[in-house]
Amino acid sequence: MNNLVSVQWLRAQLKDQDLVILDASMAQESSAGIPGAKFMELKTAFASRESDLPNTFPSNQQFEDECQKLGINSNSKIVVYDQKGIFSSPRAWWLFKTFGHEQVAVLDGGLPEWQNQGYSTAGLSHESTAKGNFKAELRKDHIKFYEDVLENTQDQAFTVVDARSKGRFEGTAPEPREGLLSGCIPASVSLPYTEVLHKGLYKSPEQLRQIFEDLDLLDKNLVFSCGSGISACIILLAREQVLRGDLNIYDGSWTEWAIRQELLKK
Predict the structure, then answer these.
(1) Of these residues, 67, 184, 226, 233, which one is catalytic?
(2) Contact at 8 Å (CB) between 226 and 256?
(3) Is residue 226 annotated as part of the catalytic site, yes or no?
(4) Which residue from 219, 223, 218 is spatially nearest to 248, judged by alpha carbons?
(5) Where is each Rhodanese domain found (predicted)?
(6) pLDDT digits over 22-77, tens only?
(7) How much is the pTM?
(8) CATH number (domain holding residue 108)
(9) How is residue 130 annotated by DSSP?
(10) Are 179 and 242 contacting, i.e. CB atoms less than 8 angstroms apart?
(11) Within this chain, do residues 133 and 8 fall inside the same structural domain, yes or no?
């Protein structure tokens, strides 16, 4: 199963009994969905209940329980999409990969592209479903923590690629979270997630390769970061279209880095 699939591909697979379609939007802004889709509560059910940071990965047990509630089995073929086109669905894709489910793909263009093609929509399913048998197995090698990134500012074993806007990266534009300073992790590289998209879809593999080549990133170990771990997954998935590598996300991202660096000054 490819990491990125088209709406045409998905439409042809709708009768597959193993297919599970999930709307992984950050908020349910529309009641319309792809037929058979269920809503994946990315901000709540699939985020840590213990962390003070936004959107951090959940525990192994929490992820497993929530997947089983959605009827996900070990042999499920999962397609995730979101209502903005491409925004939060790559985060859902990364979570499934990180918890050991390989048969998962992002729908390129999401719900807007589905509607642009004139395909029918239906209300999102909130009905109870048979409990799935999915078993989660957390791969911590997909996750970088603050201590890893702090150590890396000295030994530079990997390059942090930041998906936030240039203004936030350079410290000239404010962060959306009140009281949080903007700026960047030392020695990190800026690649705003908007640069890998065009009209709500991913750019072609050739265009994506050129982007990473221009930034001299093709032969480097990369770790992806953003504000809170969401848009980092967009540029990670872009990299996967042209060059397979470790699926490394700095999950706390700039929010954690800025908070902890400020605490060190006090």
Answers:
(1) 226
(2) no
(3) yes
(4) 223
(5) 15-123, 154-266
(6) 999 998 878 889 999 999 999 999 999 999 999 999 999 999 999 999 999 999 99
(7) 0.96
(8) 3.40.250.10
(9) P
(10) no
(11) yes
